[in-house]
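Q: Could you write out the predicted structure for this multi-component system? I'm mainly interested in how the pieces pack against one another.
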Amino acid sequence: MKNSEAILHVKGESLFVDDIPLQHGTLYADLFVSPITSGEITHIDISSATNVDGVMAVLLANDIPGKNQIGNIIEDEPLLVDQKIHFIGQPIAVVVGNSPETARQGLNAIHIEYEKTEAVFDPRIAFSAGKLISPPRTFSIGDTEKTWAKCDIIVEGQCETGAQEHVYLETQAAYAIPKENGGLKIYSATQAASGVQKIIAHVLNVPMNKIEVDVPRLGGAFGGKEDQATAWACMVALASFTLKRPVKICLTRCQDMCWTGKRHPYSSDFKMGLTKEGLILAYEVTFYQNAGAHADLSPAILERTLFHTTNTYFVPNVKATGVSCRTSLPPNTAFRGFGAPQAMFVFEAALYKAANRLGKKVRELQKMNLLQDNKVLPYGMIVKNSRAKKCWNRLVKEYDIHKIEKRIQKFNQVNPFVKKGIAIMPVCFGISFTSTFLNQASSLVHVYLDGSVGISTAAVEMGQGVKNKIKKVAGQTLGIHDERIRIESTNTVRIANMSPTAASTGADLNGQATKMACLMIVDRLSRLAHTLLNAQKADSISLKDEKIYLNENQTEISWENLVNSAYFARISLSAQAFYATPHIFFDKKVEKGKPFAYFVYGASITEVTLNCLRGNYYINSVKVIHDAGTSLDPLIDRGQIEGGIVQGIGWNTCEEIIHGHDGQLLSKDLTTYKIPDVYFAPHDIQIKFLDIPNTLGLYSSKAIGEPPFLYGIGAYFALLNAMKAFRPELNMEFSSPKTPEKVLLALYE
Amino acid sequence: MMSQSKDIRFILNNENISEYLNPTLIVLDYLRKKRKLTGTKEGCREGDCGACSILIGESICGKINYKVFNSCLLPMGEIDKKHVVTIEGLNQNELNIIQKLFVQEGAAQCGFCTPGFVIALTGFLMTSSDFSDCKAIEAIAGNLCRCTGYMAIKRVAIKLCEIFQALTESDPAAHNDRISFLISSKVLPTYFLDIEKRLNQITSESQPAIDNQCENIFIAGGTDIFVQNPEKLKTSKPLFLLNKFELQGIWIKENTCFIGATTSVEEIKQNPVLQDLFPNIVTYFNLVASAPIRFRATLGGNITNASPIGDMTIFFIALNAKISLTDGKNHREMFLKDLFLDYKKLDKHDEEIIEWLCFPLPQGDYRFHFEKISKRKHLDIATVNSAIFLQIKDNIIQKIDISMGGVAPTPLYLSQTVEFLKNKKMSNRVFDQVIKIVQSEISPISDVRGSERYKRLLARQILFIHFYKLLPDSLSQEVLL
C-alpha cells in the first residue's frame, strides 16, 4: 500500500507548522523568561523594550483578558508569571516584533528585578517539606506486612531513573491568524487540539467556538506535545487577539530544551520478599515523582506508574505508593510510556537484586512469576488472555537463549577488557487512557460525488502512522482502494471535544469511530443497491474492491455509480460516528477497577558489548517477540517497535539531563544532550510478531505506540551483567541512565 | 555597522540566481524564508541533526564536485559560484530510488528528518568511491532521527548499495561520469547535466585583495562561529578565509609536513601522505564530528577556536607541530602547544590568522595513537582526548610526546609526564609512578561532559590504552584494579 504521508515526506513537501506560508503582516513572538529558579518579581520595566524599533507589543500577565491559567488537570500554572517565579525559563512576557530579530532585541531590553527564594530539586526533600502536587496514592492487594515473615529472602533498595528530553525533531510551534468574527485560527503543533482550544478560550475569555485549532501534522511528539504545546499556542493567540495581526512562534532547539518539561525523574524505594525458589510473595514500593513546578499531567502519569507497578508479573501481596513532588524544575510531562517505564525499571531492579541474592539467573525468576489468566492485579483488574508466557516461551526458544548465553560466556572468557552482557525484558502494558472519560473519539466521513473520501478524526499524525491505519480501516470497511481516501488535518471545527492523541490509543479510538461512520454509509449504500438491483429481502449486499456484490457475486454497479445514484436519490453521503471504549471503569476512592481495554505483551533479549577500559559500549542486538494482535500494518508496527526500543535504550544509556547548581539546564542543546545516532542504535533489531488476533481490538489489532519503549530497559540490565563479568564483586546501584561515566567509575571505584 | 551586501551568484536547484545579500546570512534562512523552500528543515541550528542538509556543487578546475553541508552553519558568502541543491531540486515526476526505498521500508515516520537523509544518501551516491554499506552509513552519520531508531533507514542504505553495486557492475563507466550515471539511473533530474557548464559560465568579480585590517572577523568553515554567535556576525565585516587558496593544501618540504590552515578535517583524513604516516587516521577522524561538518571544519578553525578539547589541536600537539601566524604583513612561527595561554585565550593578535601548521616527518620506528572518549562515540565532543607519539629502542623510550584535552583550561602537552618517561622502560611499576605525575599535571573541572573524578579516571585509562596499544606486553590489567 502507498503511504501518502511518507511520499510527501521524502519529497520535502509535507507542511509542518513552521512551513505554513505566512500571511501578509505576520508578526513574530518571542518570550522573556525567568532567569531564576524561584522567587518573586519585585519590579519589571518594559519601557525600553516597547521603544525598540519594530517591537509591536510586550504583553504581561495583566494583559490577559481572561484567566491567566493553563493548568489542565489542576489549575496551578499561570500562562505568564504574575509575581511568583517557580522555575528557570518560566514565561514572564510575550514580546511581539515585526521580525524574529526585533522580538529578540525587545526581550533583551526588558529590565527585571526580583527576590530569590530557596529552590528544591530533590523530590524526596520536596516530599519532606510537604511540597506535593496532589495527595499520595496507594494501590494495594493482599497484605504485605503479614507476608514478610513468610518470605525466605527479602531484598530492599533504592532506584533512580533519569529525566529524558523528547527531542522531537520539530520544535514547539504555533501560528495564530485573526478571523472575521473576532475569533482566531491557530495552527498548533499539538497532540491535543481541543485542549489548546479550550485553554485559549479561557485565556482570552471568548467562547470555544471562536477558536479554531488546526494541526497539520507533527514532526515527532512522544508525549512532549500533549500538554506542553498549549502555552506557545496561547502566547500567539494572546498576541494575535490583542494586535489583530497574525503572530507566529517557533522555539529554537535551545529554548525548547530549556523551557519544556521532560520525562519525570523518579527516586524509588523497593522491598521484595520471595521464597527460596524465587517465587515473589510480596512487593512494596514508594515512588517519589519529580513533577517540577506545576501539575501538568503528573498526577495521571503517577497513576500509570502505580498501574504498572508489577509489570508483567503476578505478585499476591503488593503495596505501591506514589507521591508527586513539587520541585523547582520546568513541569515534567508525558513521554512515551507515561510513568510505566519508571515503575517497571524498579521492579526489574528488585528482581535483579533478588536473583543475585538467591544465586539464580534473573530469567529464572522472571519466568516463574509471569502473569497468568485469572490472576488479580493490585488495582483489581482480572487478567484475561494473558500472553506473557506465550511471548516468553517463543522468545527463549526462537532466539535460543541457551546458545546466546554460551556464546557470551565464551566471549567473556577470552576477552579481558571487553565484556558482553544480555538481559531479558518482558513487558505488559495496559491500553486505554487511565482517565476513563478520555476514551472517546469521533470521526467525520464525507463521500464526495466522484467517490473520493475525506475523513476527519481527532487523531493527530506525528509519525506513528495513524493516518495510514485509519485510511486502511476506512478502505476495508467501505470496500474501496486507499488511494481514494484522504485523511484531513486535525481540526476543532470538524471534530469537537477531542481527546489528545496519546496513550497509544490514537488508531484504536479513532479507527473504531471511523469504522462506525463508514458502516453507516455502507448501510445506506447497501440499501440503495438492494433497491437498484431489485434484490430479495434475504439477499446480501457487500462492497469490496470498488464493486458492489450481490450474494458474493459481483454486479455491474461500481462504487462510483452507487455514490452517484445515492446523491440523486437524496441519500446522505456523510456520516459522523462516536466511539467510547466499552466496559472500562476505575474508582479512585477504592483504587480498584478495570481501567484497560486490554494489555499488550512482549519480551526482548538485549545484548551489549562493553569496553571496560573506556567505559563505553554498544548495543549489539535486541530480539523481540511482540504481541500486536493481528497487526493492522506490520510495516508501521515494526517501525514503532524499532523506534520505541532505541528511544528506550537512549533513556537508559546516553541520554542524560544535567542541571547546574542553580537549576539551569546544562544539557540544553544537541551538542550536550546525546540521543542515539545511527552508530549508537543497535546493530540488529529482530522482531517477530506473536500474531494472535485481539478480539477486543480494532480489526483484531493491538495498540503499538508505547509498549516497545519498555524493551529499552533491557539495555540497562544487560550492561550491568557485562560490568559484572569484568568485576564480579561489583557494587550494584540502580541509577539510570548508565552513562559511560557511571560505568567507568563503577568499574574502578 | 551592517556588513555590506554582496552580489552573490549561484544556481539554486535549476535556477540561476544573482542577488545582493549579506554574506553572513545563513543559507537555511535564505532557503526557507526568502525562497520558501521549506523542505529543508531547521532542527537544531548547530550542525548536530542534519535536518537542514543540502548539497553544494563546486566547480574545481572545471569539474563539478558535490558535498553535503549543514545549511544552518553555511553563510551565503560561501555559496557564491556554486550549485545549491535542496530536496526540491531532486524531485522529479516520479520518486527516485532513494525516495522509493524510504517509502517502501517505512523509513519516514514523522518526516521531519527525512529530506536531510535523502540529501545525505544522494550525496553518498554522487561522491562515494564505492557503494559499500559502511560508507552509506557513514554518509548518514550526521543525521539524527528520533522516530525510526534508524533500522528502516539502514535497510534503505543497504538496499541502495545492493542496487548500485549491481548497476556499476553492469556499467563499469559509471564511476567515470557519476552525474550522467545518476541521471540515467533517475536519481538526479536531467538538469544536473548542464550544471557544470552553467557554473563555469557564471563569472564573478575578482576577489578583493586581502587586507586583514579592514575585516573584523575571520570565518573559515564557520562550524563553530555560526553556532556561538550568529547575531553578531550579521553586523560584522567577515573575511571568508576559505577563499584564500594560499591557506589550503597539504605538502611536504624538507622532511616536514605542512598543512594549510583552511584545510578541512575531511581533507586531512583523506590525505594519502597522512594515511601513510598514521594508518589509523581514518578511524581516529571518523570520531571527529560528522561528514558534513568535517567537510567544512578547518584545521586552523579548530585550533583558533581555542577549545581545550579540540581534536585537531590534541592530535597535532603530540606531533610537536609548529604553526605560522600572519597579520597579512609579518609572519611568525611558534610551537602549537605554546599558542594556548589560558581558557580560550591565545598568544595571537586579533588581526593574525594561522597560515599553516607543520610537523617533522616521523622517521624510523615510531608509534602513534589518538584516543577520544565521549558520551556518544560518534558526533560528540570529547570528554577527554589524547594523542601519543612514541619512539622505542630496546624497549627503552627514546622519544615521547603526549597531549591531552579536556583536563585543563587549555589543550595540554604533558611535559612533566613526558620528561619522566624518557629513557624508561614501561612497566606496571613505571605506570603507577607516571600516573601520579599525570594527575598532578592536569586540573579537570566538573562540567556537562563529566565530573572531575571521571576525567581523572579517564586520564589514567587513556594513558593505559596508549601503552597497551603501542607496547602491548609492557602493562597488565592488574595495574588498573
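A: Regarding packing and overall arrangement: Chain A is about 30% helix and 25% strand.
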